[in-house]
Amino acid sequence: HDNSLPWHELARCDAVYFCAGDVDALHAARRGRVLVATARELETLRRAAVELDALVGSGKDEAELYQPGDLDPAPRLVVTTSGALGGWAQPGGPFTAAPPPVPRADSYGAGDCFVSGLAFALAAGLDTADALAFAARCGAGALAGKGVHAEHVSR
What we know:
The protein is α/β, with parallel strands linked by helices. It contains five helices and six strands, in the order βαβαββββααα.
C-alpha cells in the first residue's frame, strides 16, 4: 500500500468502508471501530482474514456473490442487495428498498451510497433493521441526480 498515506488515522475512525485495496490497507481499515466491506473484494478479504462488521454484495452481480464459509472469520452481518426489491440481511432477513425519487435520474453510485450509509448507521449504534433502512434511504437518494452529490443523499 501507499506509505505516504496516514493509515494510522483509521484507528480514530468510527466507520470505515473498504471498497478496494490490498491486505495491508484492509488491516489498517480494521483498526476503525466499524468495518464494512464490499463482497467485490472477496479475494483480498480472504487473504486478510479480518472480522468484518458487515459485508455487502449485490444479488444481481456475480462478482459480488458471497456464500457462507467464504470468509474466516465470518462477517457479523451479511447484506445482499437487490435494487428496488430491497434485499436480505443475515441475520435479520428481508429488508425493503426506500422509495426512489421521482424522476429517477441515474443509478451510478447508489450501491456505494447504500454501503456508506450502512457503515455510518452501524457506527452510530443503530440496530440492524434501522441501519438497513437508513442505508436504503442513502442509496435511493443517490438516484436523484446524475452522479453522486451530497445534496442527493443528505435529504
